[in-house]
Design a protein that fits this description.
This is PorT family protein. The chain is mainly beta and 239 residues long. The protein is built from 2 helices and 11 strands. It has 2 domains: 30 residues; 207 residues, Porin.
């Protein structure tokens, strides 16, 4: 009976809060926040980093249609936000953050028994510097959806770009810096003491990021025309 009473009380409390926030005539929390010229926050989240690989002419014919396989392991994100209000519906955002991700490349075309490793594991730690425009819809009660887009520069701390060793010594190398464009969407939820924002966006590399082996016929990099980052970023922001 005591448990039922506690559950009933919690249910009534949650229902009351939901009604106040999202009902027909909710009380509007944080009414002055979006009127501020500048405000700050931080985010936590997770990601999936991948590569889009384009091959040189004749690569697939030479290798019987076999392509490099990229397996990804989800990583995490953490960073902070500076939001500059431009107009009622438009803001400029700077969201520097630390992104960790892991990728495993499998090269099925390498012949068995030649002592050449088919697997390369890439642990990447990115410092990402995105500059984004946020287009917000009209606020409805304590909810405000938005879309955003812009460009970013990423510094890959695990790139191995400056390593003298290449794949023949077990080192898969990519460039330190990469340029990306980013597109996403999310929803602002206004609570009594803070604003909570879940969002998701894609990050798309613009230029080739591969550092090729010294041997132009390398079985790891010789057939790759370009390799560009593709990532899905999910962030939970508190402001």
């Amino acid at each position: 009976m005591k448990k039922l009473i506690v559950i009933a009380c919690l249910f009534i409390s949650v229902t009351s809060v939901a009604q106040n926030m999202f009902g027909k005539n909710p009380y509007k929390n944080q009414q002055e926040m979006d009127k501020q010229r500048v405000h700050w926050g931080y985010f936590l989240g997770f990601n999936t980093y991948n590569y889009k690989i384009n091959y040189t002419e004749g690569y697939q014919i030479k290798n019987n249609g076999q392509e490099i396989q990229v397996n990804t392991t989800g990583g995490f994100n953490v960073g902070f936000i500076t939001n500059l209000r431009l107009t009622e519906y438009l803001s400029l955002r700077f969201e520097p953050g630390l992104y960790y991700g892991k990728k495993t490349l499998f090269f099925p075309q390498l012949a068995e028994g030649n002592n050449l490793s088919k697997i390369r594991t890439i642990n990447s730690t990115y410092i990402n510097f995105p500059l984004l425009l946020k287009f917000s819809a009209m606020r409805t009660g304590n909810i405000r959806p938005f879309v955003l887009g812009g460009f970013s520069q990423s510094l890959n701390l695990g790139s191995n770009q400056d390593s003298k060793d290449d794949n023949y010594a077990g080192k898969f190398r990519v460039k330190k810096w990469s340029s990306n464009y980013e597109l996403g969407l999310g929803i602002d939820f206004y609570f009594e003491h803070f604003k909570f924002t879940p969002s998701v966006r894609g990050s798309f590399g613009i230029g080739d990021e591969l550092v090729r082996d010294r041997n132009a016929q390398s079985p790891w990099t010789g057939g790759i025309e370009s390799m560009k980052t593709r990532a899905i970023l999910v962030n939970f922001t508190f402001q």
